[in-house]
Design a protein that fits this description.
The chain is mainly alpha-helical. The chain folds into 2 domains: about 5-105, no CATH class; about 120-160, no CATH class. Helices cover about 35% and strands about 0% of the residues. The protein has 7 helices and no strands. The longest helix is centred in the first third of the chain and has 12 residues, at about 5-15. The radius of gyration is 28 Å and the shape is elongated. The mean pLDDT is about 85. The protein binds heme C. Heme C binds near residues 18, 27, 28, 77 and 79.
């Protein structure tokens, strides 16, 4: 079950207008776009989503309700879930209501720079990596020496990995 592809579009098209990020539009104190709020009791005290328990989830009760003043989305909103959408939501809750966004929807982030001690030496991003390597090898970068030279020194003092293949005796 993929939240970003299968579930979020259903909730977004049919529910977020009244149960989404917009505080002024929000109804019943229920916010469905975040797991932190969707899994907590709404103003009424009932909980929209109880992971693993669709039978106890108010969301399921509401989207399957037959009474006009209970069913969600409200008939006045001109929105209606298809039986397939209802079943997808039920299965999603049954399987734990995972809100994880697929990686392709998550804003890319630069990987962090490695932690180094001698920050005064660092001038550019790549210095972090060189310095980390030196610090791991117990070496200190000398001020004024070209970075490349330091890097070469670090490599030269490290035994090459390729000579490690053991000969059968
Ligand atoms: C046009 C606005 C609107 C839309 C769209 C809408 N709702 Fe609602 N919802 C309300 C209102 C108003 C209430 C409070 C009245 C009531 O309980 O019926 C409510 C109440 C609820 C409750 C009960 C909250 C509580 O108090 O325990 C749930 C669960 C719910 N909605 C789920 C949904 C779901 C799921 C969708 C989308 C499939 C949806 N709603 C779409 C307006 C909306």
């Amino acid at each position: 079950m993929d939240y970003s592809r299968q579930i979020r579009p259903i909730l977004s098209n049919n529910c977020f207008k009244c149960h989404g990020p917009d505080e002024k539009e929000r109804q019943a104190g229920l916010r469905l776009d975040l797991s932190e709020t969707a899994l907590k009791p709404a103003d009424s005290g009932s909980t929209a989503i109880v992971p693993g328990r669709p039978g106890e989830s108010e969301l399921i009760a509401r989207i399957t309700a037959t009474v006009a003043d209970e069913v969600m989305p409200p008939p006045g909103s001109k929105k209606k879930l298809t039986p397939t959408e209802i079943e997808l939501l039920r299965q999603w809750i049954q399987q734990g209501a995972d809100y994880k966004l697929h990686w392709s929807y998550v804003k890319p982030q630069r990987p962090g720079f490695p932690q180094v001690h001698q920050m005064s030496w660092v001038r550019t991003g790549i210095d972090h990596f060189i310095l980390q390597r030196l610090e791991q090898a117990g070496m200190k970068p000398a001020m004024g020496i070209a970075m490349g030279a330091i890097w070469l020194t670090a490599c030269a003092t490290t035994p090459p990995i390729t000579s490690a293949s053991p000969e059968p005796s």
